[in-house]
Amino acid sequence: MAEKLDEQAELLHRGVSELIRRYQFRDRQEICCHGISVSQCYVLTALAEKGQLTMGELATYMQLTVSTMTRVVDQLVKKEYVDRCVDPKDRRVCCVQLTEDGQALVEKINGELLAVERGVLEQIDPAARAGVVQAIALLAGAIDRWREDAKCC
Q1: Long-range contact list for 14-22, CB < 8 A, 24+ apart?
Q2: What is the radius of gyration, based on Cα positions, of the chain?
Q3: Are 84 and 77 in contact (CB under 8 A)?
Q4: Chain-centre distance of CA 31, in angstroms?
Q5: pLDDT per residue as tens digits for the range 11-44
Q6: Which residue, among 103, 107, 87, has the nearest Cα to 95 in the 3D structure?
Q7: CATH assignment of 2-122, given 3.40.50.300, 1.10.10.10, 3.40.50.720, 3.30.450.40?
Q8: The whole model's pTM is what?
């Protein structure tokens, strides 16, 4: 039983590594033409999904340090895709939110990426598509649960 799990872990590692490599390469090709980095795109997407966030919340969500997040946000402020604001509950806390230009860019990028995803899904047998999407969601959930368990130990 443990041998099978070890073998599956190795196959998962290889498969996920290859998938990440291909997606990261694709993301750079698709996103960089808009004058932003992949990290900047992820921040814009997070703000579009979550709304206004404090720098600490954004750093935690992105799994980065606050100092790294500050550098990424600084670049987005210069490009006028995000604004910094003061938290109305605590004026010492800095918040970040999308500007109208930032929201428009996120919508444009997401539209382009969804078109790519549709093209990828078209390469998969229609009978298997739902299973592929469900497996990826299950994997993401398992990673989240594993991280939570690891924090406890």
Answers
A1: 16/139
A2: 19
A3: yes
A4: 13
A5: 999 999 998 888 777 665 666 678 898 889 999 9
A6: 87
A7: 1.10.10.10
A8: 0.76
